[in-house]
Amino acid sequence: MSSALILQAIVSGLLLGGVYSLICVGLTLTFGVMRIINFAHGEFLMVAMYATYFFAVGFKLEPYAAIVVVLPGLFLFGVMVFYFLIRPIQSRDPLNQMLLLVGLSLVLQNGALALFSPDTRALQSSLLYSKIELGDVIVGTPMLIAFAVSIIVTLALYWQLRFTEFGRMIRAATSDRGAAELMGINVNRVNMLSFGMGVGCLGIAAPLMMPVYYVVPDIGTFFILIAFVVVVLGGLGNFVGAMLASFLVAIAQSIGALFMPGSTAPVLPFLLFVLVLLFKPEGLFGRTSR
Amino acid sequence: MTALGQTFLVGVLFLFMLSAPTFLSDHQTHILIQILFFAYVSSCWNILGGFAGQLSFGHALFLAVGAYTSTMLLLQFGVSPWIGMLVGGMLAGSLGLFIGYLSFRYGIKGTFFVLVTLAFAEIARIIALNTSAIGGASGLYIPIRGNDFWYLKFVNKAHYYYVIFGLLLVVLAVTAWLERSRTGHRLIAIRENEDAAQALGINSLRYKLLATALSAFLTALGGTFYAHYVTFIDPSTLLNMNLALEITIYSIVGGIGTLLGPLLGAAVLVPIAETVRTELGHNYAGVHLVVYGALLMIIVRYAPEGIIGLIRWLREQWAKSRSLPTHHTSEAKP
After folding, report:
1. Is B123 within the bounds of a domain?
2. The pLDDT of residue B330 is above 70
């Protein structure tokens, strides 16, 4: 095994980690911080990817331009889901909210199957083939952009939760709902907006992914499990932890692909997940930012 | 309804189910088999998810263990599926004990138990896809060999119907026993308030493990039946997250933690799925889940006790409206 190959695997893993991180930032907010077991997160991503696809095809623009529409669109979608579906059963067992979102994910996933057929759809973007060569290592430009943006979005959300008034409200509303209400915080509004933000993050993720990924109705199931793994590994609600966990999981996958037989490398995140849940349930990176 | 009336109704239903294949067409029998199969698997899930209150999204794993074990034993060593069924059940039961012990020992419950079961099912799917010895991604075919009871092979669908009907009766008997026994009551106490149950001296780890092992064992028997009825198994249909969710949905829509809930759920939902499937064709396999998902949302939101809960509510309303006029006179009597 040449060292160039391993170096390439690490770099590819890092870049893939950027994509995971983009997807997981929103779930860290809705699942990690708000403790809503957002089983529809993958399907929200799927919706955002189809929206990006049709925007780019319809207007003959680069997929990145779709952010202008898809980001606010997903935010509104999230707000509506919270208002009409989650808010009415907020006081019940969290497992009820989870089941409701499982129902929503089935409706979205299979609704997309009925509307768009199971065909894969990919954009013919010139970006797909643009790359930067650093010695023996090749870096795809779209992946590099996604990587950079994922770091920016993660830090922005971390900053917002830690240091802004709205972030304080979110933390107050999730740690003690009653007390927060007594302090004059409109908890329902705060929760609605933060759920919207969590879903809205996918409005950034999807346009950044579409130059490289294709979209199918069940693409959500592929990412949702990884996303839950990453959010738990990162330490629930820890944005920077989730980002590091994304890199770790992705690098483990890409290095594992070199050494493990067949395509068994994808088991690594799940093995890691089970081990961490058992022996370090607070996550690999503690819960410093909560 | 009087006890006599109830017994009569159950008797009539039983006779109807027993004679159903004689007057139903092949296609209708096939649908009935599917209803019974999903009612069976969902009833098995219900022991853990409904009675012990530990939701699992990974029951497809136990189904797959049952299917693969008996199929491999048959293909490699010519072992009868009836024996393979028991071996698969025991393997699945042990696997359930392993997953359960790991989780419950370390205090994993609720959401995190859901995620752990999902993770194990996903690990199994990836491993099965990559293990050519058990067919890999292309799956395994079970050769057809005419009528042979010992090899669970029948030409006539009616015979398969009686096999799954028998299995369903077994799981219903187990569930009915749970409903009445101390073990079942302990499981329900753990579901409702685990700390309180432990304070009363119930060993919650032991009972949760018992529920997991029993649920996994019985689920795997269904897996063997599935393999031999469909005669083809592969990782992407068996170890599929949506299949695991379907199993869960029948119980929740019908009435989670009740004896007949999973049966009612399957009886209502499977015909819908079958209609969608025949109308839209194979390419759109899965579109029925739109209906499942929507119903799940409605039930969770408006009727958390499922169809059973709705029926109970209707009966109470009916009883109330009947007893109202005579209510005062009957109460005035000494």
Report:
1. yes
2. no
Report the residue of B104, B112, B123 to disrupt the A interface, i.e. the one with the largest count of A CBs within 10 Å.
B123
Report how far residue B183's alpha carbon sits from residue B189's, in angstroms, rounded to the nearest whole number. Answer: 10
Give tens-digit pLDDT for A135-152. 778 888 888 888 899 999
Q: Is residue B277 part of a domain?
A: no
Categorize the per-residue pLDDT at B331 as very low, low, confident or very high, splitting at 50, 70 and 90. Answer: very low
Domain ranges in chain A are 3-279
Look at the domain A3-279 and name its fold.
ABC transporter involved in vitamin B12 uptake, BtuC (1.10.3470)
The answer to whether the Cβ–Cβ distance between B300 and A96 falls below 8 Å is yes
Whether residue B89 lies inside any domain: the answer is yes
Q: B233 forms bridges with which residues in the sheet?
A: B140
Residue of A95, A225, A278 lying closest to B106 (CB–CB): A278
pLDDT of residue B256: 93
Contacts of A92 in chain B (CB under 8 A): 304
pLDDT score, position B1: 56
- Work out the minimum CA distance from A247 to partner chain B, whole angstroms: 19
B127–chain A Cβ distance below 8 A for any pair: yes
Q: Which residues of B touch A221 (CB under 8 A)?
A: 241-242
* Residue ranges of chain A whose pLDDT lies below 70: 1, 286-290
This prediction has a pTM of: 0.90
Q: What are A81-139's pLDDT values in tens digits?
A: 999 999 998 888 888 899 999 999 999 999 999 888 888 898 877 777 788 887 778 88
In a domain, B264, yes or no: no
- Print the SS3 string covering chain B: CCHHHHHHHHHHHHHHHHHHHHHCCHHHHHHHHHHHHHHHHHHHHHHHHHHCCCCCCCHHHHHHHHHHHHHHHHHHHCCCHHHHHHHHHHHHHHHHHHHHHHHHHCCCCCHHHHHHHHHHHHHHHHHHHHCHHHCHHHCEECCCCCCEHHHCECCCHHHHHHHHHHHHHHHHHHHHHHHHCHHHHHHHHHHHCHHHHHHCCCCHHHHHHHHHHHHHHHHHHHHHHHHHHHCEECHHHHCCHHHHHHHHHHHHHHCCCCCCHHHHHHHHHHHHHHHHHHHHCHHHCCCHHHHHHHHHHHHHHHCCCHHHHHHHHHHHHHHHHHHCCCHHHHHHCC
Nearest beta carbon to residue A277 from set B116, B122, B290:
B116
Give the residue numbers spanning the domain of B186.
31-239
- The size of the A-B interface in CB pairs under 8 A is 121
Residue A289 pLDDT: 39
Inter-chain residue contact B287 with A105, CB threshold 8 Å: no
Q: A63: distance to nearest CA of chain B, Å? A: 28
Instruction: Read off the pLDDT of residues B45-102 as tens digits, 9 standing for 90 and up.
Output: 999 999 999 999 999 999 999 999 999 999 999 889 999 999 999 999 999 999 999 8
Residue A61 to chain B, least CA–CA distance (Å): 31
